[in-house]
Amino acid sequence: MKIRVPKIIKKLFSPGRKLYTLILSKVSKSIRMELVLVFGICLLASILVGSIVSDSFQGRNARIDYTTGVRRISEQASYIANTLREGKVSVNDKEKVQQTLQHSIQSENFKVLISDLDGKVLYKSANSNETQIDIYSTIKNAMETVRDSEYGNNSAVYRNKEYVSFYPVNFTDARGYLIVSGMPQGEIVYDKNNNNLPGTVAILVTFLSSFYFITNKKMKYIEVVSKGLLEISKGNLDYRIKKYGNDELASLANNINFMAEELKNKIESERKSERAKSELITNVSHDLRTPLTSIKGYLSLIKDKKYSQDSQLEQYVNIAYSKSEKLEVLINDLFEYTKIANNGVSLEKQNIALNGLLEQLIDELVPISEENNVSIFKEFVEEKVIVSVDPNKTMRVFENLLMNAIRYSLKPGKVKVVLYKEEQFALVKVQNNCDNITEEDLEKIFDRFYRVEKSRSTDTGGSGLGLAIAKNIVELQGGEIDVNYNNGYISFNIKFKL
């Protein structure tokens, strides 16, 4: 059966619950607060256990205490003296004095005497027979018993068998002494034998053990963090420390994991850069050596006069010259890419219409496209698309993309150039039909010296830097460029802010 808690009770406990939640949240995020709380809990627990142990080990000594009995005799004497004084009784008023005495001691077995200043007994209780007392001895005995009682030495009272209370009495017409004596009644009292050593030991043991067990989990986690840091320092950058809680240790573990991830990425980046440098050297060596070998070979034939007629000489010269031109293009592309990649190019931005720039470039490339049996189609918006770019550098971007499309289109083929607006951006798509391209090739297509055609023949491809140069120029001007392949068509997409 579910018990419903009244709303008023929920409201009363709501502030306390919120405070508890707030404190718990603060404590869980701070090791300092956790230690303070643990210390407080351990201290309270040790004090509680220590008090229980102290009570268990404390002995009890029985003794007879006469303090209460002595006090009753003294109080009785004080009462009689005050009654006689306040009643303004005459020393000769025997009936009233005797009545006061009998009334005061009717329930007690005390002896009461009233004497004059010389010790002659004037009045006495029924259980007294004295007619004369020694004032000096009486006062002395009374003083000794009072002193012993005040210092807790009740053995003296027990030894004398009675207690004497001495009081001066003032009558209306005389002075005297009141002596009340009797056997004080004793009561059994149990005194504790204080032994603090067991309690102290219990407090110390409880505090240390509870503090150890409560903080044991946290200390183990510190060991886990330390072990993880040692493992990462050995070079195992894939190792990750598990995160527990939200305090500073959890934050430390998270930072160590982040550090390991960053180190891993940096090392992988450096390795990738080294591989890229190695590939760059290999590719540059190959692309430079191929035309250079041809030039050297034909010049060697000319030098050794290994030609039969002038037409063959002219053919050798033309081939060598053609190869030198390709070598020059490769060197220029390499030089330009290096400048752009190292931000060594200054931009001269202008507001230009992409429509006009693309139309001019397409018209210039018509002869080359016809020579390669490729048709170029345009699909532009009617309004002008104005962007702020460097005209020459942007022209180089689209020239590289269009030449790449013409070179790698299936023959006969077609290239489609699309220009439109989308929100605050101008978008250009250069599309052409081509052979199937794998996802791996698509991811590397902007890499320097990368060619989808693996033979690296200069007869079927360019320098391998055109797309890399185009990507760097676009990004240098704050634009974006990407590529996708779908159903036999590859599309390069360029975005510039209007």
From TrEMBL:
It comes from Clostridium tanneri. Its EC number is 2.7.13.3. Residues 283-498 form the Histidine kinase domain. This is histidine kinase. It is a multi-pass membrane protein. It comes from the Bacteria. Residues 216-268 form the HAMP domain. PANTHER family: HISTIDINE KINASE, SENSOR HISTIDINE KINASE CPXA. It is found in: Membrane. Keywords: Kinase, Membrane, Phosphoprotein, Transferase, Transmembrane, Transmembrane helix, Two-component regulatory system. It is an enzyme of class 2 (transferase). GO terms for molecular function: kinase activity. InterPro entries: HAMP_dom, HATPase_C_sf, HATPase_dom, His_kinase_dom, HisK_dim/P_dom, HisK_dim/P_sf, HssS/ArlS-like, Sig_transdc_His_kin-like_C. PROSITE patterns: HAMP, HIS_KIN. It catalyses: ATP + protein L-histidine = ADP + protein N-phospho-L-histidine. Gene3D superfamilies: 1.10.287.130, 6.10.340.10, Histidine kinase-like ATPase, C-terminal domain (3.30.565.10).
